[in-house]
């Protein structure tokens, strides 16, 4: 009986490994593989990270530059950066699936990729729920559904948990500072605004027209946010965040609400974004005090 059961399990695994899979990508395209992908190229660092979260990191054969997480991602061959890559390098790696980023890579480049005869999955994450949805789709395409489904479920529970804890608390008006020179922020369409909403906060520049507008100090003073959250370029707290202390009339200064979260935990739409969201929610909650 034990050998019979083992045989059935092996046959089921073999069937799953060879079964055709179909998903709908974020450009509403049907992406079909004759069997789960074994050689994957990801054309953005956040997509690389999501492939690992889906349990398919070992199947990556090519990545975009700056793919530095998780451990081992920086050892995978680089085919270019997120804006330009070598088609020759892609072909030489013999991928059976390419994962691209619509707004970052540019949808105009989709045609050149599809002409290679390789299935292309288009990712464009705008809502927090898109992160677990993307991980779930990648797992289906890669044949790693048990891992991807478990991770997607975990992230969906975290969205609910944070929302229940913070979303109904008094609103905190937030200026999210991407950079200092030029002074830059994000508008209400950016996913970071969804994080702010999860924390019961509001983006002070949600009404800006462009996704990442350049602004001036006077506009920040005029909107007078309750808190300022800075990103920067690395793991260290940006020194320029403290320059706001020179404006004592700002509510953010009066409340001692000059905050910082490592940009990799807020500016990459990956599982780590929920770590950053939890940290940010706690910081903004202190501003309410």
From TrEMBL:
Domain of life, per lineage: Bacteria
A matching Pfam family: Peripla_BP_2
Source organism per UniProt: Candidatus Litorirhabdus singularis
Keywords: Signal
PROSITE patterns recorded: FE_B12_PBP
Residue ranges occupied by any Fe/B12 periplasmic-binding domain in the UniProt entry: 39-289
Cleaved signal peptide residues: 1-19
Name of this chain's protein: Cobalamin-binding protein
InterPro entries: ABC_Transporter_SBP (IPR050902), ABC_transptr_periplasmic_BD (IPR002491), Vit_B12_bind_prot (IPR054828)
């Amino acid at each position: 009986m034990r050998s019979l059961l083992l045989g059935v399990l092996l046959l089921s695994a073999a069937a799953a490994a060879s079964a055709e899979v179909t998903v709908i990508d974020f450009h509403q395209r049907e992406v079909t593989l004759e069997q789960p992908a074994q050689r994957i190229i990801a054309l953005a660092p956040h997509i690389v990270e999501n492939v690992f979260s889906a349990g398919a990191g070992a199947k990556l054969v090519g990545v975009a530059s700056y793919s530095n997480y998780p451990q081992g991602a920086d050892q995978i061959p680089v085919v270019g950066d997120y804006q330009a890559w070598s088609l020759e390098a892609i072909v030489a790696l013999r991928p059976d699936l390419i994962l691209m980023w619509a707004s970052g890579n540019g949808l105009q480049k989709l045609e050149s990729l599809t002409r290679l005869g390789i299935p292309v999955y288009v990712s464009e994450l705008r809502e927090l729920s898109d992160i677990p949805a993307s991980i779930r789709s990648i797992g289906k395409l890669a044949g790693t559904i048990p891992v991807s489904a478990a991770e997607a479920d975990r992230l969906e529970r975290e969205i609910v948990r944070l929302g229940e804890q913070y979303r109904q608390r008094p609103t905190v008006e937030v200026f999210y500072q991407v950079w200092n020179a030029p002074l830059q922020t994000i508008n209400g369409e950016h996913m970071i605004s969804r994080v702010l909403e999860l924390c019961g906060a509001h983006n002070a520049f949600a009404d800006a027209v462009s996704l990442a507008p350049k602004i001036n100090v006077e506009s920040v003073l005029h909107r007078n946010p309750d808190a300022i959250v800075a990103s920067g370029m690395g793991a260290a707290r940006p020194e320029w965040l403290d320059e706001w202390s020179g404006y004592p009339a700002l509510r953010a200064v009066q409340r001692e609400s000059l905050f910082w979260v490592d940009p990799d935990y807020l500016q990459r739409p990956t599982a780590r974004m929920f770590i950053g969201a939890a940290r940010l929610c706690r910081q903004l909650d202190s501003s309410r005090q």
